[in-house]
């Protein structure tokens, strides 16, 4: 079997080379023999390691679990080294995998998370070249000052602080010069290698990753599209006065250069920063939940890269209010109406612990007989907690360990599910895991208020949809009344929870208890 793996890897190398050299749309010299060879060699070594290390160990034994964990870790480290060496698209895909905390083995997610801080940096000469080609001017002509050291570097671009001739301080996002030309070739290489690995491991279902990269990378590489997304979400969520989205300066923006209003703050997972600056951690967590519930359930237009570097918090000196600053608007998921309604109703069923409806809407979203696993993936809770009600009790440390362990134990089933669900679901799962990571860092995970906010948005979304489909004035009034009643019940329950946790509530309960005993 191991010989077969190496033979298939060699065939893949030859096939990849023939295809790439024969394809008139690809320049093999730009692709680079070293770049291709590195990816093929890493894939072959990882495949060989899995085939040989676990071959003679009984499946399910403690020794098997230990060895599998070691192979996962070695493979993840090799994959990380490949991403750092090949850069660009490889880092982007590695970051995506690192964000799937409760869907992939912990050895992979923990190892690949560092890619967010190990992105490459372009040189000053490369930056000058991109600005010259896209804006037709030199840096000195556009800016009074331009900081050479980037504020941050990501897989596709980096951001510099600068001051315009009129004195405005701006953030300048500049695309790495070679990413555009290499991205399609990188995806092609990944596709060939994943197909080869699937021949060796039939349960290996990661083609969804390539499909997502094919669809999303061209959009992320178009900074004009990112600017439009920023303006759209700012308008869409204008009722949230705590949300700040940087203004776009269109006159100095292009597909590879984006000029924005400069905004700064602490990262959203930095609890110590919030405490130092008098920012209420629970309020930030609650408001972040409100933003995403509104985006997902009500509007169906979702910012899908909320890692801590893209979500900042800052206290306004004048008003004393804490603001959430949303950055990097390149990756959004638009949800179809039918998908959004099924997703709303599934979350309502999960919050209400209605297992019949959980099964019904999970199946409608492509989970099939794996609906219990799907429910656990969505909520990052155990099946026991899902049955009991995910809002009944916060997640415990032991349950969190159980969920992470199950990600390794049920990897074939998880990858099968990811291959079967609608493509819209994939970025939502990634977004869910990134938001849970923020909540875990702030110690606000699974608070009752987050589920209440989700319930409100689901009720509003479903009611709006039902009204749009009804032609009867009486029926629309009935829907509106039911909606108002449901929202009132949630407000009442939230008041009860607040009283229960407050000093005033304790006094009221003590008074009622005293009156009861007196009578």
From TrEMBL:
GO CC terms: mitochondrial inner membrane
Domain Protein kinase: from-to ranges: 145-474
A biological process term (GO) from this entry: lipid homeostasis
PROSITE patterns for the chain: PROTEIN_KINASE_DOM
Gene3D superfamilies attached to this UniProt entry: Transferase(Phosphotransferase) domain 1
Molecular functions (GO terms): ATP binding; protein kinase activity
PANTHER family registered for this protein in UniProt: AARF DOMAIN-CONTAINING PROTEIN KINASE 1, ABC1 FAMILY PROTEIN
Family (UniProt): Belongs to the protein kinase superfamily. ADCK protein kinase family.
Role of this protein: Appears to be essential for maintaining mitochondrial cristae formation and mitochondrial function by acting via YME1L1 in a kinase-independent manner to regulate essential mitochondrial structural proteins OPA1 and IMMT. The action of this enzyme is not yet clear. It is not known if it has protein kinase activity and what type of substrate it would phosphorylate (Ser, Thr or Tyr).
Name under which the protein is recorded: AarF domain-containing protein kinase 1
Native source species: Apaloderma vittatum (Bar-tailed trogon)
């Amino acid at each position: 079997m191991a010989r077969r793996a190496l033979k298939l890897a060699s065939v893949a190398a030859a096939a990849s080379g023939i295809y790439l050299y024969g394809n008139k749309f690809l320049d093999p010299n730009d692709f680079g023999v070293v770049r291709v060879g590195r990816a093929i060699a890493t894939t072959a070594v990882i495949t060989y390691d899995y085939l040989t290390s676990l071959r003679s160990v009984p499946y399910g034994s403690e020794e098997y679990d230990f060895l599998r964990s070691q192979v996962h870790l070695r493979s993840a480290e090799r994959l990380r080294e490949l991403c750092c060496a090949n850069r660009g698209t490889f880092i982007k895909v590695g970051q995506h995998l690192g964000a799937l905390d409760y869907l992939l083995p912990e050895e992979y997610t923990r190892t690949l998370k560092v890619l967010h801080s190990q992105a490459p940096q372009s040189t000053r000469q490369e930056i000058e070249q991109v600005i010259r080609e896209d804006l037709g001017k030199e840096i000195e002509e556009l800016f009074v000052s331009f900081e050479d050291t980037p504020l941050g570097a990501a897989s596709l671009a980096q951001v510099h602080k600068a001051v315009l001739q009129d004195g405005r301080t701006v953030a300048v996002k500049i695309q790495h010069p070679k990413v555009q030309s290499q991205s399609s070739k990188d995806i092609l290489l990944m596709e060939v290698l994943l197909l080869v690995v699937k021949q060796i491991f039939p349960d290996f279902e990661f083609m969804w990753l390539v499909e997502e990269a094919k669809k999303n990378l061209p959009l992320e590489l178009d900074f004009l599209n990112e600017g439009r997304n920023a303006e759209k979400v700012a308008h869409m969520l204008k009722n949230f006065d705590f949300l700040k989205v940087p203004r776009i300066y269109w006159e100095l923006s292009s597909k590879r250069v984006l000029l924005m209003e400069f905004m700064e703050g602490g990262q959203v997972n930095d609890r110590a920063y919030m405490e130092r600056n008098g920012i209420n951690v629970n309020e930030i967590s609650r408001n972040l939940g409100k933003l995403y519930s509104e985006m997902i359930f009500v509007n169906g237009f979702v910012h899908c890269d909320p890692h801590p570097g893209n979500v900042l918090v800052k206290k306004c000196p004048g008003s004393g209010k804490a603001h959430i600053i949303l950055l990097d608007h390149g990756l959004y998921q638009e949800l179809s109406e039918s998908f959004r309604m099924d997703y709303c109703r599934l979350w309502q069923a999960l919050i209400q612990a209605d297992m019949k409806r959980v099964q019904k809407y999970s199946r409608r979203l492509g989970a099939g007989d794996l609906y219990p696993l799907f429910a656990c993936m969505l909520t990052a809770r155990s099946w026991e907690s899902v049955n009991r009600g995910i809002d009944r009790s916060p997640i415990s440390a032991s349950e969190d360990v159980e969920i992470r362990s199950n990600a390794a134990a049920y990897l074939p089933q998880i990858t099968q599910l990811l291959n079967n669900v609608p493509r819209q679901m994939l970025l939502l799962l990634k977004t869910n895991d990134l938001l849970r990571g923020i909540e875990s860092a702030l110690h606000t995970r699974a608070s009752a208020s987050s589920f209440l906010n989700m319930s409100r948005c689901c009720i509003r979304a479903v009611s709006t949809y039902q009204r749009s489909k009804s032609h009867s004035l009486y029926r629309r009034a009935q829907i509106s009344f039911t909606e108002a009643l449901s929202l009132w019940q949630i407000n009442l329950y939230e008041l009860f929870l607040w009283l229960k946790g407050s000093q005033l509530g304790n006094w009221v309960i003590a008074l009622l208890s005293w009156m009861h005993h007196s009578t």
